[in-house]
Amino acid sequence: MIKLIASDLDGTIVNHDGSISDRTRQAFLAARDAGIQIVFVTGRPFRWLTPVIESFGEMGTVICSNGALLYDLEHDQVIWSRTLPVETARKAAQIILDHEPHAAFAAETTKGLHLGEGFADRHHNFGIQAPLDLSSDTIDAEGIVKFLARSPRMPMDDFYAAVAPQLDSLLSVTHSAFDVSLLEMAHVDIHKATTLDEYCRRLGIGAEEVMAFGDMPNDIEMLQFAGHGYAMASGHPLTLASARYVAPPLAEDGVAQVIEALLP
Questions:
Q1: pLDDT at 123
Q2: How far is CA 256 from CA 24, 177, 219, in A?
Q3: How far apart are CA 21 and CA 78, in angstroms?
Q4: Which InterPro entries does its entry note (predicted)?
Q5: What are phi and psi of 154, to 5 degrees?
Q6: Which end of the chain is more exposed for a tag (fewer CB within 10 A), N or C?
Q7: Are 78 and 199 in contact (CB under 8 A)?
Q8: What pLDDT was estimated at residue 47?
Q9: How high is the pLDDT of residue 121?
Q10: CA–centroid distance for 22 within its chain
Q11: Which residues have C-beta within 8 Å of that of residue 116, sequence separation ≥ 6?
């Protein structure tokens, strides 16, 4: 019996234009009406939950920043966060620069986004941000929930393969974008599954009672944690290879199809 549905956003239920289809929206609302808990689990910061708010209103709790932050959407407040010391970010940046001297960095904190020189480009609008200064310890007061490194020239999988093995003891490393070579780093003990597990324990729900959906490598641990983990057919090959089940692609409302089949 499924008691909780956990879903990634971008590439899973959120289309490239930032919308969620009405069929998908109705499927989640029907699941909630059937008594199933809904939790969205995303790499996005809590400030970028517009698709969820537009489709579902202020519904429940969202696991943000790849598990580093638990956010109460209804009361607009951070419930819990696990932050990364700036000293760790400095060490990670040096390791990355040794392999990719052109890398640029950014840090998502509990207060906002800090952008390093060269990180932004004309294709990505990051909204309001502050300059990134890793030489200062003041950013520790805000708490880094996600440290980002971008390569302007190395393909994503090559960038990850070059640096991830040397970063594993410092922090957790993943990636979730098809269109940019971007590493996403957090506290060494944090990924989507760790926070989802903790959230489920609070509700008295076991992993075998969880259905989860995702499309990218940052979803792999979550899909393996859930008793019913579905990779999107339109997702990354590594995610597809790691999941127990495969849902139809996003373009065919794959998540909605699976939920509809679940409900009476």
A1: 46
A2: 5, 22, 18
A3: 28
A4: Cof (IPR000150), HAD-like_sf (IPR036412), HAD-SF_hydro_IIB (IPR006379), HAD_sf (IPR023214)
A5: -90, 135
A6: C
A7: no
A8: 84
A9: 65
A10: 23
A11: 104, 105, 106, 131, 132, 134
171 in Cβ contact with 191 (< 8 Å): no
Q: Long-range contacts made by residues 159-166, C-beta under 8 angstroms, separation at least 24? A: 159/100, 159/183, 162/99, 162/100, 163/95, 163/96, 163/99, 163/100, 166/95
Percent of the chain with pLDDT over 90: 81
CA 133 to CA 114: how far, in whole Å?
A: 8
The helix/strand/coil state of 179 is coil
Per-residue pLDDT reduced to its tens digit, 140-158: 999 999 999 999 999 999 9
* Beta-strand runs (E) in 11-151: 37-41, 61-64, 69-72, 77-81, 104-109, 113-115, 129-131, 144-150
Identify the pLDDT of residue 127.
58
Using CA atoms, how far apart are residues 21 and 249, in angstroms rounded to an integer?
Answer: 13
pLDDT at 126: 58
Note the pLDDT of residue 224.
Answer: 98
The pTM of this model reads 0.88
The residue count of the chain comes to 264
Both tokens assigned to 119: 């990180």
Q: Which of 14, 8, 7 is nearest to 50 (CA)?
A: 14
Which single residue is written with the structure tokens 């957790």? 172
Q: Are strands 210-214 and 228-232 parallel, antiparallel or unpaired?
A: parallel
CA distance 257 to 249: 10
Contact partners, residue 246, CB within 8 Å, separation at least 6: 230, 231, 232, 233, 240
Identify whether the C-beta of residue 139 lies closer than 8 Å to the C-beta of residue 109.
yes
Q: Residue 186: enclosing H or E segment and its boundaries? A: strand 182-187
Q: Could you tell me which residues come within 8 angstroms of residue 251 by beta carbon, excluding any fewer than 6 positions away?
A: 234
